[in-house]
Structure formats: C-alpha cells, structure tokens
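User: Um, any thoughts?
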Amino acid sequence: MFLKQKRALVISDFDGTICTVDMGNKVLSHFTKKSWGNIDREYVKGSIGSRAAYSKIAPLMAASPSRLHTYVLKVAKIDPFFTKFHRLAKKKGVDLKIVSDGLDFYIRAIMEKHRLGEIEFFSNVVVFGNNDSLTFNFPQANELCGRCGTCKSKILNDHRLMYEKIIYIGDGHSDICPSRSADLVFAKGVLLKKCEEEGTTPYQPFHDFSAIHEYLKNNF
C-alpha cells in the first residue's frame, strides 16, 4: 500500500537566503588566522568543491564555541518576511526544510534566537577540539560525487516521492545542482543567472520572502 503524497515541500538555502548575511563567509573570514582567499577563488572557479575547501580551511581556523556564538548573534540578520512566510506555510500544510552547505552551529543559534528552532535543517557539522581548534564533518555528503559538504540534490531527491511538488529557494553556487531537480525555483544572485542561462526549470526571481509568501497565499 502506497502512502499518499503530501502536497508540497519548500526546500530553502540558508546563507544569503533565509539569513540575509552570508554567515559562512563571515565566520570563516573572521576566525581564520590567515587569508583563505585563494581557497575561495578555487571554489568559485569550480576547481574544488566545498568539501575540499572546508578541509583546507579547517587548519587555518581558531575559535571557541562561545566566541563563535557571540559573533554569530551579533552579525546575523534573517529575511524580514521569513517568519511570516513560515507561519503561512504551516497554516497551508506546506512543509519546510533548510539545506545548507554552511555550518550547523550558526544555523541552530540563529534559528533558535528567532524561535524557529523547530525547522529541520541539513548542513555540515563543526567539531570543536582543544586550543580553539576545529574540524568539519559532512554527514550529508554524497560519496558518489563528493564535491559538496552537503549534497542538496540528494536531500531533495530523498524527499521526491513524498511530495507532489518541491519548491526550491536559493542564491548561490551550491543551489545550482538541486534547483535542476525542483518543480519551481525562486532564485536570486548566482542561481538566478544560472536559471536565466539554462532556462530548463520553471523559476521566479525574488528579492525576499514576501514573494514566496504571496506565491503560497495565491496557490495553496
């Protein structure tokens, strides 16, 4: 006996999308002992994936959990319309999950600060060591590819049969691959340019979550 599909799932990126500040970039820049610009340029060019980039950056970082937590809550800002969108999604019975190639500690801290800790998220994991050292774990990696720390496409496809429709929201390089498997994409930044170039997946430009709120209001 097959389970009935739920109507819709919204999968959203975090940095630059739900959080208007790219916290991953901010944290790495603030807590590395020397520049990681060359690593970032390799990533942007596509020479390496994020998983390799994180592995190269880890030895350059030094931070305690308390210092990171204080910094994150000082710097982070979430989209002013996100909470309103989340309330409407719950009312309409539309599920929401966060996928991020960023780091678990700041996503959790930011979401809990805004009383949104109930939202499930998938991300890379920070493991704190001695003397402010840290390493990264990648529980959401796809070993068949291995480029990204968090394989957003795998997460999307793992939920594909559960929902009639999957809506993807994002802005960056790590959102390009999963967006190709969505039924509708809300895009800005790098992702929007790629959607315009490829023209294969239905997409809508957006500036903030007011656009997704209106879409849910009018279509569900």
